[in-house]
Amino acid sequence: MLATIQITWQNLSDGVALGGLYALMAIGIGLVFGVLRLVNFAYGQLVMAGAFALAFGSQWGLPRWVSVLFCFGVVLALSVLMDRLVFRPLRGKSPAVMLVATFAVAYLLQSIALLWFGPLGKSATQFATLNAPWTIGGVLIRQVTVITVVVTVVCLLALRLLLDHTSVGLHMRAASLDFATARLLGVRANRVIGGAVIVSGVFAAIVAIFLTVTNPQVTPDFALHDTIVVLAGVVLGGLNRPLPATLGGFAIGFMSGVLGGALPTNQSQYLPAFVFTAVILVLLVRPNGLFTRGRGAVERV
How sure is the predictor about 178, in pLDDT bands with cuts at 50, 70 and 90? Predict the structure, then answer.
């Protein structure tokens, strides 16, 4: 039988840290879905590629800022290649074809990483010092917890400003509503969608940095489990807009973090079952998402 769950302030702190990280991942995944109508299962492999870039930076003894630039460069280059070589040629195909393509890309990149770096991977230790705690109100809170939440809020606000108050953002929203009509009205839809892919890649690179703080050992399946959980969180929150998707990512991350710390070690195997059961129950009541309004069809960005 399950032991009594005891939730402490430390568990809540860990839940906020994981929730902030998953919210950051949800922003990138939700943005690509809003514009492309594409659930990108290869998003975790972008994070994995950025983490390997950081690991090489650590191995080569590069300064932190150079490693960060290298991480962003690798993730953005891979994002552009995925868009040009896979997503753009298949853009007119059915959603099922696009979905299968992202699965294929994800496992291809994972297999390449396995062949090149082996199953043990490499270590990225540049930012391990961010695990050091701050004492706030008598509670030990890791520095990365505060930084992750702050960065997530800043990224969400920046994305909202981009979508609402810039010509690129308005074109992005127009392309998401009707790709064909937007092109007829003069919107360069391919360029706008490419921009959305790049912005999503920026978020993936940031996630790679934060993930290596708590998990410095980078392997070919790095961030795979996190991506699956975040995708469930995005559906839980609502795919129609970035904010509901982000809240869904935070909710499922917070729940996973709190329960992961509260459950005894020998009963941690119950955590995924509990989390995904909760997702199913919520979707039975709110099929359009927990943080969306109305019962209409899913909207885009």
Answer: low
Q: What is the mean pLDDT of residues 293-299?
A: 50
Which residues span the domain enclosing 217?
Answer: 9-223
For residue 257, tell me if it sits in a domain.
no
Tell me if 270 is assigned to some domain.
no
CB 46 within 8 A of CB 201: yes
- Around 116, how many Cα atoms within 13 Å sit in the side-chain half-sphere? 13
3-state secondary structure of 141: strand
Q: Does residue 78 contact residue 46 with C-beta atoms inside 8 Å?
A: yes
Other Cβ atoms less than 10 A from the Cβ of 117: the count is 16
Q: Whole-prediction pTM value?
A: 0.87
143 within a domain of the structure (yes/no):
yes
Closest CA to 29 of 209, 168, 236: 236
Tell me the two tokens of residue 172. 């992005």
Q: How many helices (H) and strands (E) does the chain have?
A: 11, 4
Which amino acid is it at 205?
A
Find all residues with CB under 8 Å of 133, minimum gap 6, and list them: 140, 141, 142, 143
Helix, strand, coil fractions of the chain, as percent rounded to 5: 70, 5, 25
The span from the CA of 257 to the CA of 235, in Å, is 19
Which amino acid makes up residue 173?
R
Count CB neighbours of 87 within 10 A: 22
Q: pLDDT tens for residues 65-90? A: 999 999 999 999 999 999 888 888 88
